[in-house]
Design a protein that fits this description.
The protein is an alpha/beta fold. It folds into two domains: 6-17 and 87-216, Rossmann fold; 19-84, DNA polymerase, domain 1. The protein is built from ten helices and eight strands. It has helices at 19-32, 41-46, 52-60, 64-78, 92-101, 114-123, 145-156, 170-178, 195-199, 208-216, and strands at 6-9, 16-17, 87-88, 105-113, 130-136, 163-167, 182-186, 203-205. α9 links the parallel β7 (182-186) and β8. α1 (19-32) crosses α4 (64-78). 44% of the residues are buried.
């Protein structure tokens, strides 16, 4: 089992192809904040994965206060509409099934609010395979990927050396590194060209099939 016992999965861009709803909700929030220019898909793609406040501050130049307001506007649309504008990533469910059968303990570790993430993994049939489902809170709890990973390990009573974080973006690798956890990035999500190489994860795989073979054979 490659020395790992626990496999932690990111959600957006990893288990799900979620940009449809995310892009639409960013557009909605920006208009509500008085931004008249249409954001490019290049910029919107950067927003898939990091926390909403981080994206509004770093990619749209908002102050901390405005980023908080924009996040609230984003969630106005997301909670009823954007939440469902996504689809499961090819091979994700089959990977979870294979890893569970092989004896791994699986968990979800996402920067998406848990209240929304729980509904998504339930809809796509992922939740039966998870022993823990951790996301950020609408109250501001677990605001970074590192804090989400740390909470996941706490709930599982897992040591960092026993864990592998599976994601698709630099912040997954950074959050794992802060916790002393190995990281595998999949080339299925929203990473920019060269981003995975720059993030320097322990492993990089083309898709879920490669990840499954690596962990089970």
């Amino acid at each position: 089992m490659r020395g790992y016992k626990y496999i932690l999965f990111d959600l957006d861009g990893t288990l799900t192809r979620s940009h449809y709803g995310i892009f639409n909700c960013f557009r909605y929030a920006l208009k509500k904040m008085g931004r008249t220019d249409e954001p490019t898909e290049e910029i919107l793609k950067k927003c898939v994965g990091p926390s909403l406040e981080y994206s509004f501050e770093n990619y749209f130049g908002m102050s901390k206060e405005d980023a908080v307001l924009a996040t609230a506007k984003y969630r106005e649309r997301y909670k009823d509409i954007g939440l469902w504008e996504n689809e499961p990533m090819d091979g994700a469910l089959e990977c979870l099934q294979a890893l569970k059968k092989a004896g791994y303990t699986l968990a979800m570790s996402t920067s998406k609010p848990k209240i929304f993430a729980d509904q998504i993994v339930e809809k796509f049939g992922f939740s039966p395979y998870f022993s823990a489902q951790v996301g950020c809170g609408l109250d501001g709890s677990f605001p970074t990927k590192a804090s989400v990973i740390a909470e996941t390990m706490r709930q599982l009573s897992a040591k960092n050396t026993q864990c592998l974080m599976v994601g698709d973006r630099f912040h997954d690798a950074e959050g794992a590194k802060e916790n002393g956890v190995d990281c595998a990035l999949l080339r299925v999500g929203y990473a920019e060209e060269g981003e995975i190489e720059k993030a320097k994860p322990k492993y990089a795989f083309a898709d879920f099939s490669e990840l499954t073979v690596f962990l089970t054979e």
